[in-house]
Structures are given as C-alpha cells and as structure tokens.
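Researcher: For the record, we're logging two predictions in this thread. I'll number them. Prediction 1 follows.
Model: Prediction 1, sequence and structure:
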Amino acid sequence: MPKPSKMAGTSVQGRYPEWQPLRDLVGPYLADWFMWMYEIQLTDGTRVHAYKHIDTRQYLHLSEDGRAFFFEPSKWYRRVERGYAVSVVLSYWFRSCHHVDRIDEEARHHDVTMARLDDLRGIDDDLYPDDDPVVTDEALMDSD
C-alpha cells in the first residue's frame, strides 16, 4: 500500500527541542539561525520538528529521519525534497549581500565546512511553488 504524499498532523509538544535533524541538514552554524518551535505527529506516526528561521521567519519542517515537509493550510503536511525546502527558507537570506558576507566570515570560525555553505548557496533560486518538486506516492513507494 503506497504512503500518501500528504498527511494530517497535530502538535504533540512544544517543550523539548530536538536539533539533530536540522543540524544534520544545514550544519551547526546555520542551525544557530533557527528557533525550534514545536513537534508534530503525522497520521502515520512520523515525528516532525518545526524550525523557524530568525530572519526570514520561514519554517522548515523536518522529520527525525531527515525528511522535509511543507505545511499546507489547515493541517496538512506534504513531503518535499530537502534541498528545495532549504531553498524556500533561505534563498532570500542568501541573496542578501550583508548576510552572505556575515555567513562567509563567521563560518570560518565555526565547525561548518565551506562546502556545506556552497552546496546550500548553490540551490537554484528560480525554484518557486509553481515548479514545486512534490514527492509523489510512486516516489515514496520506490524509497521503501
């Protein structure tokens, strides 16, 4: 039976942050630019953590095993490609010269590889929701 690409989710707690999924995806330095907001449980039992970027105010929803999800009104979570999710949250921030200079300068003093920053900065800025790389039910079946 294929997993659905869209699932309902409910907030289960907002007290005990889990930073590992975010650190694994963006590295420890960029993770410091986020606030952990709450934990969600999807209908299939997946635990998802909501992280909010302090400048862009955009959310990044990551499961404990590293999958990315977009929130859709009113309670739906849709699985998407991780690189795309990061680009939506950070692309405006990376295009800001002030922040890019600050990231490049300060990252040298943190345990973040410049390759990680280059990978994230290299995400296609032309990706917008119209070209949304939704993970389909068929793709989810292939990943099992």
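Researcher: Logged. Prediction 2.
Model: Prediction 2, sequence and structure:
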Amino acid sequence: MERHLYQHTYLGDRYEDVVQAINEHGPEFLGGSASAARDHADEIVTNLHVEIAGLDVSKTVDLELGEPETLDEHATRWLVNWHAEDGDTIFPAMRAYLEVAALSVHPPLTQVSFIGHYEPPLGVIGAAADRLVGHRVAEATIDAFLRDVKWSIHRYLGSQATATPS
C-alpha cells in the first residue's frame, strides 16, 4: 500500500533566486549545513530527525538529489530519494520531488513543495503500524525537512542580499 505525502511552504524570495540557490547549494540545504557529507556526486548523507507525541525519531539516510527539471517558466523540480543508510528495512525509502514554483512576482512569493510517496515496510504489519503512527512520523519528518530547506535558502539569500552593494 503506497502512501502519498504532500507539504509545502512559502518564501518571500524571487523564484529565480530560489532555483539558483538550490542548484548551487542543494546538497547543503537538503542535508543541513552542519551535518551533510557528500559521499559522491549526487548523494548526501544526513540525519532526519523529528519529535512526535514525545517520541524522538532519528535516522541517518542516504539522500540523492537529481538534476533540475524545468516544468515551465515558473516551475522547476528535482527528484529526491532517500533510504536508511544502514539498509534498515524498518524505515521506508522515500521517492519524491522538491518543486519550486513562482506564485507572485511583485511582491515575490515562491512556493516550495515536497511531493512524494513511500511503501510502508514489513507488509501487513508495517501497513498497520503506518496507519497508527508511521504516517504521522513521515508527515512530521517532511515538515521538518521543508522547514530546514526554507531556513537554509532564506539564510543563503539573506546573506547574498547583505553582500550585494547598494
């Protein structure tokens, strides 16, 4: 039983600047500037962490960021895949797109979306566990992931703005 996830956030930055920031610094943004480590050209090792209902869930994952795919003049997406670094089958692999879309030019407003799916592990038992708590953990993880990406982009673009001469 495949489970689908969709979450989004907004940035008050120009679409072009957000796309350029992800293209240039995507691994750092997606992996967290302090914890990301490049293993090779397209793979990032990072720690996904979330707390839900007092339960602290953390897992080191291999995260792969694909090449940008321009959907139209106002939307771009990147394939994002992750799976447990140690091959642990209790945590599902995620296949998703990180999508950036311009909503407004003046004032600038850009939507960053996570559109993905995963298959709960462990068959019928895993599907039952996913219905009880797993899906909420997945949603909370994606929420934290998008929050980190937003913060990283905002920090980068803010530092770029302050470095630009007036």
